[in-house]
Amino acid sequence: MAERKKIGIGMLGAGWMGRAHTNAYITARYMFWPTSNWEPELVVIGSSTEEKGKLAAQRFGYQQGVGGYEAIINNPRVDVFDNVTPDRIHVEPSIAAAKAGKHVICEKPLAVGARDAKRMLDAVNEAKVKHLCCFNYRFFPAVQLAYDLIQDGVLGKIYHFSGNYYQDHGSDENTPAEDIWYIGWSGVAQGITSHLIDMSRFLIGEVESVHGMVRTYNKVRNSKNGPIDVTADEGFFSMVEFANGVTGVYQSLGVANGRRSRFSFEIYGSKGSLAWNVEEPNFLDIYLSESADPRVLGFTRVCATEPNHPFMNVWWPPGHTLGWEHGHINMIAHFLDCVANDKPVAPRAATFEDGYKVAVIIDTINESSKQGKKLAVQY
């Protein structure tokens, strides 16, 4: 059994993403045993107040709970700073952690706007620390299988990427604003389209130009303090051109009635096609036109749970499926391995560079919608 390197974890944020990441550290520790040589230690967790931090530490099993982030980044036992706070609190704590020499994990979107995202990217590059932006959907085995098939040229020449992310939280115009997550945060573009954009860059390549259309369907909402004006986007769409000549379409909605959280993509190539959606995350639909038997041409549904599928050698027997949380576990395990063994985080995982580029693309789509024309993406 390999010698195990202790990696101290300091987390900022104790909400539902704090639960997801903490579960990932705890589960990765024993699921990736004994082939891994790293072992995460839950050192300290911070919340908005010291009282909340101490409650979170008691609940999640951290050795200490604090208020704010300064005590986390000043703790010499912390090797990795994990920022799972709301969007607008990503920037300054993550920059401070990098300057303190901590490896940094930050939930997506990296920042609400490319300017701040660039500051974060510059900070981690200057500090020469490892960095991860949490686009966790990359880490479903079926998605990693899609990446491998594309890299191996199985689909031939790629023609088109089509992706959508639909939710229905704002469908009813009478739903109070406080009950719609994207109104209090930063809109569907940052909250869910960022996942879609990152997935397209991961599987297809760099985005060269966009032609966007952005909508707020319910510009006035009821709230506990009476009617309020709403500026957060509820519909975010774009035609896309990739640098390699592939075309694409992004579609995201916060008012897609009946769709609780449907994220899907389809990719079409000269020799085959792929389709996936997060509601059935273990399955990758694959069509290969050069079938050995033309009588059975058509899409084949592959259950990505075999030991030779990505990450499945540490999980369950074939046919025993994974859930949403396993994307986070696989992602965290990958990052810990990179920290322990000085491996590159990219291209399998998203770095702050990926988070920055997603922010640039979102800003460009917003500007394209305002101008009503196609715009080049300039990083």
Task: Explain this structure.
With 379 residues, the protein is an alpha/beta fold. The chain has helices at 16-31, 50-60, 70-73, 91-99, 114-127, 141-151, 181-184, 187-203, 324-341, 352-371, and strands at 5-12, 38-47, 64-67, 80-83, 103-107, 131-134, 158-166, 207-215, 220-221, 228-229, 235-242, 247-253, 262-269, 272-277, 283-288, 300-303, 375-376. The strands form three sheets. Strands 16-15-14-13-7-12-11-8-17 form a nine-stranded mixed β-sheet. The protein is globular. The N and C termini lie far apart (45 Å). The model has no long low-confidence stretch (mean pLDDT 96).
At a glance:
The protein is an alpha/beta fold and 379 residues long. It is built from ten helices and 17 strands. The strands form three sheets. The chain has a nine-stranded mixed β-sheet. A six-stranded parallel β-sheet has the order 3-2-1-4-5-6, with helices on both faces. Strands 9-10 form a two-stranded antiparallel sheet.
Question: What is the strand and helix layout of this fold?
Answer:
Blueprint: E1 5-12, H1 16-31, E2 38-47, H2 50-60, E3 64-67, H3 70-73, E4 80-83, H4 91-99, E5 103-107, H5 114-127, E6 131-134, H6 141-151, E7 158-166, H7 181-184, H8 187-203, E8 207-215, E9 220-221, E10 228-229, E11 235-242, E12 247-253, E13 262-269, E14 272-277, E15 283-288, E16 300-303, H9 324-341, H10 352-371, E17 375-376
Parallel strand pairs: 1-2, 1-4, 2-3, 4-5, 5-6, 7-12
Antiparallel strand pairs: 7-13, 8-11, 8-17, 9-10, 11-12, 13-14, 14-15, 15-16
